Fold this protein.
Amino acid sequence: MAGAILRTMAIITTVAVFSALWCRGPLKNWQCAQNLEQIGAALQTYAQHDKSGDYAPMSRTPGCLMFSPKALGSEAMQKAPLLISYVHPHRSVLERRCTNASLYVFDDNSYWYLGFAFANERSANEWLEACKEAAQHREPVNDFEREARHGGSCEWRSKRAISSRLATGRWAGFRASNEIVYAHLKENIGDTLSPFDDGREKEAYFKSIIPVMVERPELHGNGGHVLYLDGHVEFVPYPGQFPMTQKFIEGLRSLDRLPN
């Protein structure tokens, strides 16, 4: 009788443990998504108050894909450790650091902030190459990519190799274009996008596919959450569709291996 009771208790304990572990996964996924949604709201607020409608500028730290810590001064960003993924292996340690304003961490150990909108994946990969070159020369991202306007058209240049001119300031042929084009993220990015031939609403569509922040896929093991320009968050499997393609993610990770 005692043996049967012990076996029953062991089964109940095992089921309880596995149930807790199963529930913890969906809960942390939800919490990670909430993190990015709150960051997205803070970035949108910044853009709404910026005279040009730009999103927060990139960090001045070479090779760090995060926004500038001075750009977002909202209470939400200051009080909550939003830049730490709930599945980060050192979350508890990093959370304690966040209680001290002087130790608050604005880095890309959980999420990458892209800061630019890309016309296609080729543009994103070329941008990463420029990021790596800038980091090797101890230059921050914003120093080598700037937006200038000439007679109503848009031109994006780097101090080094990359430049691209857009006729009439629009991203014509967005879906199939091989042209290297990228622009600072803006609240009204749809104003620079060319409509599809079938007449579908362009701005809502483009804002729904332009990534703003990308969670490191190694934290979950099989993918990560992506914040898009329209504010919604999706879990994208890795390897998978952009921005979770192997080439782009490996390019992002390569910045970690550069000397500080």
The chain has one domain: 3-257. The mean pLDDT is 69.
